[in-house]
């Protein structure tokens, strides 16, 4: 089952495209879209086509920040029915957890996690699709939109440490600096941002407990727009847990609120298996991290869930036919 986005993911597409001197109409037709289709924010659209539209639009307009420019004017209302619930959450942490809980009502391809690391919180915000697709612009749009949600809820109290992207920096960082106003890391280990733990627990001045309960009941009553893909849901969990070394079937099942036997049965019904999905995600992340010369091979092994580098080397050889060192020597230029 193909991954679907809400059409709201392409909110502001026309404004950005036309501001860059691009005629969007031919591109819309190329990827199977129409203006009327995208006018309904709740319309479900194929993620692959939406991502391809962003990538092609960026190339056609020669703009390295196309997706991020779309995120710049995002509002809470662009989260649809979930926006009222987010507005009245007690803290930013509660709001982010609500985003995670209602991902299926937002965009199926979003994979978001909140990880406490002492006084710092790491918020990972990845775009995961089935089949896998990488996209600089969809990723910057997703991170930018979530970042703006945090800023809208906390105002001057939103003071993040950094914004991180796994891809390389554009030639001009003016747009990134204007939107994020904090340290920027490119060629990083994850997509997302870091902030003080205190920020997530700072009281939301707009919160109203009664309205939050009303909004939650309303959102819970909404039907899912499409049948859940267990394969995609598990891929997203593996994507987030693999770098932490916790991408086990027990951990994934617990995080998804089911027991291991139920998860195995549902994967069997989808004609796939947990180890097969782990290997698929690991291959995808392996190429991402191996192409980044800033990561040592030992660090790549850790990011793929291996505590012993020799185990990573054996797995890599079976998947790609050469050792990690040989692959990198052939495909990656050294930094500097």
Descriptive key words:
two-stranded antiparallel ribbon; H-NOX domain; 336 residues; alpha+beta; 2 domains; five-stranded mixed β-sheet; Arc Repressor Mutant, subunit A; 19 helices
Query: What name does CATH use for the topology of the largest domain?
Result: H-NOX domain
Whole-Å distance between the termini? 43 Å
- Which ranges are low-confidence, i.e. pLDDT below 50, for 5 or more consecutive residues? none
N-to-C order of helices and strands: EHHHEHHHHHEEHEHEEHHHHHHHHH
Describe the sheet with the most strands: 5 strands, mixed
Question: What structural class do helix, strand and pairing data support?
Answer: alpha+beta
Mean pLDDT: 91
Estimate percent helicity.
40-55%
Protein name: AraC family transcriptional regulator
Keywords: DNA-binding, Transcription, Transcription regulation
Pfam families: Arabinose_bd, HTH_18
Structure explained in plain terms:
With 336 residues, this protein is of the alpha+beta class. It has two domains: 4-200, H-NOX domain (Alpha-Beta Complex), CATH 3.90.1520; 230-331, Arc Repressor Mutant, subunit A. Helices cover 53% and strands 10% of the residues. The protein has 19 helices and seven strands. The protein has helices at 13-19, 24-30, 35-39, 47-61, 66-72, 82-87, 92-101, 103-106, 136-154, 174-180, 197-200, 209-221, 230-241, 249-255, 260-269, 274-290, 297-303, 309-320, 324-331; strands spanning 4-6, 44-46, 110-117, 120-127, 162-165, 183-186, 192-196. It has a five-stranded mixed beta sheet with strand order 3-4-7-5-6, with helices on both faces. Helix 13 (230-241) packs across helix 16 and helix 17 crosses helix 18. It is globular and about 55 Å long. The mean pLDDT is 91.
